[in-house]
Write a structure and sequence with these properties.
128 residues; mainly beta; 11 strands; 0% helix; globular
């Protein structure tokens, strides 16, 4: 059984930083891609970033480029999201997800339906 467990959320002032972690278990992730999404109250879940487990290729939403960095530690089976220069509009529940059949050509990685398993989410609140 695949399990994804997020941690690291919290309350931070605008301009501050937070680091999220996602511990993955239950299956081999060598050919998978790991994604971070977020969902604010009353809004749809939106793509934040993605990383390929094997080669480390990354993709980012335009809204977080230059501020967020996704990375992974193969030895620890953990994916990270370093968030800098946080803004109030970054406030949301952040979810980790895994796509076991990632596409690198059609550009569909931003769609939640492409992902097979999800974590329970962790709250990030940025105060102004």
């Amino acid at each position: 059984q695949v399990q994804l467990v997020e941690s690291g959320g919290g309350l931070v002032q605008a301009g501050g930083s937070l680091s999220l972690s996602c511990a993955a278990s239950g299956r081999t992730f060598s050919s998978a891609a790991m994604g971070w999404f977020r969902q604010a109250p009353g809004k749809e879940r939106e793509f934040v970033a993605r990383i390929s487990w094997s080669g480390g290729r990354t993709d980012y939403a335009d809204s977080v480029k230059g501020r967020f960095t996704i990375s992974r530690d193969k030895a620890k089976n953990t994916v990270y999201l370093q968030m800098n220069s946080l803004k109030p509009e970054d406030t949301a529940v952040y979810y980790c997800a895994v796509d076991f059949s990632p596409d690198y050509y059609r550009g569909s990685y931003y769609r939640p339906r492409e992902y097979d398993y999800w974590g329970q989410g962790t709250q990030v609140t940025v105060s102004s």
